[in-house]
TrEMBL record:
GO cellular component, one term: cytoplasm
Single Gene Ontology MF annotation: tRNA-uridine 2-sulfurtransferase activity
Catalytic activity entry: S-sulfanyl-L-cysteinyl-[protein] + uridine(34) in tRNA + AH2 + ATP = 2-thiouridine(34) in tRNA + L-cysteinyl-[protein] + A + AMP + diphosphate + H(+)
Cellular compartment(s): Cytoplasm
NCBIfam families on file: PRK00143.1, trmU
Protein name, entry field: tRNA-specific 2-thiouridylase MnmA
Pfam families: tRNA_Me_trans, tRNA_Me_trans_C, tRNA_Me_trans_M
Keyword Chaperone: no
Site (Interaction with tRNA) residue list: 138, 354
InterPro entries, per the entry: MnmA-like (IPR004506), MnmA-like_C (IPR046885), MnmA-like_central (IPR046884), MnmA-like_central_sf (IPR023382), Rossmann-like_a/b/a_fold (IPR014729)
Annotated EC: 2.8.1.13
Residue ranges, annotated region (Interaction with tRNA): 162-164
Domain tRNA-specific 2-thiouridylase MnmA-like central, first and last residues per copy: 233-284
Organism of this sequence: Aureimonas glaciei
């Protein structure tokens, strides 16, 4: 007999570590599992020094969150520990984010945080505590035994508006087998109802929206603080080769940006590429943002067949290149010995550093097949004349 977490023990004999962020989602996970009789241990990670300033509504991982997690644990009667992971977080998340941003990419630190700090380091700590599983408040489903397999698989959740699979594609098979996501079948409204029924003090707490160490949403300010002098001035160049002006550093720009370019032009201009090595910002018309092909790196493949076999066969699937977009039709292909994605309907403003996540469908319950980091994008149309050089034809 398996318990509700697909583990072969009675709940009272099953230790579950819950990653408690101080928000309503992870608090409800702890409450649900405690009510079902599991041996629940709450752990909150101190990831960065939030200082003594007030907590902004919608911010994540501030000092107040640790206090809230502690209060929830006390109300549930479960042990609770706060672990200092600041150094690990800096080395595993903040430093790579900074380097990637300076290189002209648009990195997603939440992917790196899940991949390293939470599902590598915290998971190891959970094992050290004798836990049978690590549970989190992410909105994603995992199920066991697909096609008789002893391993678990990931699926899009019931609440697609809260789908967090985009940030979890890099989870390895070994990690997936140890992780549990009790909220995968719930909507956010239902989660808050559960929180209210359990009398949790965080039942009405606002959702986290910002990157935890970018509390004001200004990436460039954070980069300048972490790497003084990172904002090297350079030219703003049109895709037709004309130099239109100057800028104060590529860290102030992202692919697809229109506002803040500070140029006088009869046509709307968008940032279509960033050449960090030459400190150039390349701008052009909206149609220059059109992308048909993505070259990927650091791929985590969760499909049943080998990745190379799927790519050589041109497997059709659905992909997300932004967390807020629904999956779109695509095809796996081979590119110079590596794997690429052909976007069947195209996409605008795709930036290197973003994630491309694979699915076997677009609906709730669609299986997550992994994903990778976008190393380079190939423009759908060549806007660059010979005088501008070939470097601008393939962005990234």
């Amino acid at each position: 007999m398996l318990n509700s977490l697909d583990l072969p023990k009675a709940p009272g004999d099953t230790r579950i570590v819950v990653a408690m962020s101080g928000g309503v989602d992870s608090s409800v996970v702890a409450a649900i599992l405690k009510a079902e009789g599991y041996d629940v241990v709450g752990i909150t990670l101190q990831l960065y020094d939030s200082g003594a300033g007030p907590r902004k509504a919608g911010a994540c991982c501030a000092g107040q969150d640790i206090h809230d997690a502690r209060r929830v644990a006390e109300s549930l009667g479960i042990p609770h520990y706060v672990l200092d992971y600041e150094e690990i977080f800096r080395k595993s998340v903040i430093d790579p984010f900074t380097a990637s941003y300076i290189a002209g990419e648009t990195p997603i630190p939440c992917v790196a945080c899940n991949q390293t700090v939470k599902f590598r380091d915290l998971l190891a700590t959970a094992r050290d505590l004798g836990a049978d599983a690590l549970a989190t408040g992410h909105y994603i489903e995992s199920r066991a035994g697909l096609g008789g397999s002893p391993h678990r698989s990931l699926y899009r959740p019931a609440d697609l508006d809260r789908d967090q699979s985009y940030f979890l594609y890099a989870t390895t098979q070994a990690q997936i087998d140890f992780l549990r996501f009790p909220l995968g079948a719930l909507t956010k409204a239902e989660t808050r109802q559960v929180a209210a029924r359990h009398g949790l003090v965080v039942a009405d707490k606002p959702d986290s929206q910002d990157i935890c160490f970018v509390s004001k949403g200004r990436y460039a300010d954070v980069i300048e603080r972490l790497q003084p002098g990172a904002g090297v001035a350079g030219d703003i160049v049109h895709v037709d080769g004309r130099t239109l002006g100057r800028h104060e550093g590529v860290v102030h720009f992202t692919i697809g940006q229109r506002r803040g370019i500070k140029l006088s032009s009869p046509e709307p201009l968008y940032v279509v590429a960033l050449d960090a090595a030459a400190s150039r910002v390349i701008v052009g018309p909206r149609e220059a943002l059109a992308t048909r092909r993505l070259i990927l790196r650091d791929i985590n493949w969760l499909g049943d067949e080998p990745l190379a076999e799927a790519a050589e066969a041109g497997r059709e699937l659905q992909v997300k290149v932004r967390s807020t977009r629904p999956p779109a039709a695509a095809r796996l292909t081979m590119e110079a010995g590596g794997v690429a994605i052909e976007l069947l309907d195209g996409e605008d403003g795709v930036a290197p550093g973003q994630a491309c996540v694979f699915y076997d469908g677009a609906e709730a319950g669609a299986r997550v097949l992994g994903g990778g980091i976008i190393a380079r994008t190939v423009a759908a149309t060549a806007f660059v004349p010979a005088m501008a050089g070939p470097a601008l034809l393939a962005r990234g």
